[in-house]
Amino acid sequence: MQNHYTTKGKHLTIDSRRLIERWKKEMNYEDIL
């Protein structure tokens, strides 16, 4: 069970990083506009 949670946590961290990068880019575009 612990291993399953750790793998899920890693995947979530990767997804969160991608989402944060997209959010930052979107925010930058909005600031430029």
Topology:
Blueprint (H helix, E strand, L loop, with lengths): L1 H31 L1
What do these coordinates show?
This protein is an all-alpha fold and 33 residues long. It has one domain (1-33). The protein is 94% helix and 0% strand. It has one helix and no strands. It is rod-shaped. The termini are far apart. The model has no long low-confidence stretch (mean pLDDT 76). This is Transposase. It comes from Streptococcus pneumoniae.
Short account of what is shown:
The protein contains one helix and no strands. Helices cover 94% and strands 0% of the residues.
* Number of alpha- plus pi-helical segments: 1
Terminal CA distance? 47 Å
Q: Count the beta strands.
A: 0
Mean pLDDT: 76
Give a short account of the largest sheet.
none
The SSE order reads H
Task: Identify low-pLDDT runs.
Answer: none
Proportion of beta-strand residues:
under 5%
Q: In one word, what is the shape?
A: rod-shaped
Helix content percent band:
over 70%
Work out the count of structural domains. Answer: 1
List keywords for this structure.
33 residues, mainly alpha, 1 helix
